[in-house]
Amino acid sequence: MQFGIFTVGDVTPDPTTGRAPGEHERIKAMVAIARKAEEVGLDVFATGEHHNPPFVPSSPTTLLGYVAARTENLILSTSTTLITTNDPVKIAEDFAMLQHLADGRVDVMLGRGNTGPVYPWFGKDIRDGIDLAVENYALLRRLWDEDAVTWKGKFRTPLQSFTATPRPLDGVAPFVWHGSIRSPEIAEQAAYYGDGFFHNNIFWPASHTRQMVNLYRQRYAHYGHGTPEQAIVGLGGQVFMRKNSQDAVREFRPYFDNAPVYGHGPSLEEFTAQTPLTVGSPQQVIERTLSFRDYAGDYQRQLFLMDHAGLPLKTVLEQLDLLGEEVVPVLRKEFANLRPAGVPDAPTHAARVAAAQETAKEGTRG
């Protein structure tokens, strides 16, 4: 199982001081956070994609390419790449290039995003959101899998014997996660292709997460990719920790109360009771995270949101120390002990290359 962090890259004033970092400072902080993630033994760093204030990660592959040069083992991902408003040709080429630069330490999470106005900014219509996601991904898949693509669709100009460059590293495209909070069509899309499904698992109750993940698992089996238990699932999560749970609640409360997304709404206590947000001791985070498998089954990737709502960099790095030293080692052991035989490991480039080579050998023997 893989553990990591994802960032939304918000530039939010610290409610305890009133100070907001500049864009330059926030971007550099994201790099520091990624490097710290590797230092404490995490597996994955993922960045969102946003094109509006107060967010800065408008160019995920630029950030991830920079991080790739400063890390050795960290898997670099997005959370998410906008399949609806980005050109599939550009996605295919950008992520293949990143694959080569990072020696395969790359995968991609595709989604529709959560900002409606982004559609007209890129010449699209939000009413076409699902259709764009379906058509654009079908083209992206072909651009990675085929050396010369002739294609015609509804939303972009046709292609005639087009070759995306560079070609995917070792002939194996980045592993794809389809990220969604609320759209069953995206779970269906992930299942159809046999790709991974990532449920954000931050704002919604366990009953909703169970429904979305179960839909994906059943449809994954329906399309002949394996049993429902073999489907590749990732979950988000959100935590704030201190050694003493009361200290965690006291320190995090002003950040929660003023957060751009859920601030000035439900109380911290209501939100933690109704969603996976966990504010407390490392042991409480361990117990809450282990409970995710009660409604999502055995899954492959767990990402945590830790740098948001104006939390200063120093505090985020302290959180990562706690995560790496006290939480993740226990979670690795417990999830491994609980996982039944037959549940696949998290996908990696090396494993997927080996599987492709084995498939090719079987083809020649047949």
Summarize the structure.
This is LLM class flavin-dependent oxidoreductase. By secondary structure, this protein is α/β, with parallel strands linked by helices. The protein is built from 13 helices and 13 strands.
Notable features of this structure?
366 residues, alpha/beta, 9-stranded parallel sheet, two-stranded antiparallel ribbon, globular, oxidoreductase
Give the SSE map:
Blueprint (H helix, E strand, L loop, with lengths): L1 E6 L15 H17 L4 E4 L12 H9 L6 E4 L2 E2 L5 H14 L5 E5 L6 H4 L7 H17 L3 E3 L7 E4 L12 E6 L3 H10 L2 E4 L6 H17 L10 E3 L3 E3 L3 H13 L10 H7 L3 E3 L1 H9 L1 H5 L4 E5 L7 H26 L10 H17 L1
Parallel strand pairs: 1-2, 1-13, 2-3, 4-5, 5-8, 8-9, 9-10, 10-13, 11-12
Antiparallel strand pairs: 6-7
Notes on the structure:
By secondary structure, this protein is α/β, with parallel strands linked by helices. It has 13 helices and 13 strands. The protein has helices at residues 23-39, 60-68, 88-101, 118-121, 129-145, 184-193, 206-222, 245-257, 268-274, 282-290, 292-296, 313-338, 349-365, and strands at 2-7, 44-47, 75-78, 81-82, 107-111, 149-151, 159-162, 175-180, 196-199, 233-235, 239-241, 278-280, 301-305. β9, α7 and β10 form a beta-alpha-beta unit. α2 (60-68) packs parallel to α3 (88-101) and α10 crosses α12. The longest helix has 26 residues, at 313-338.
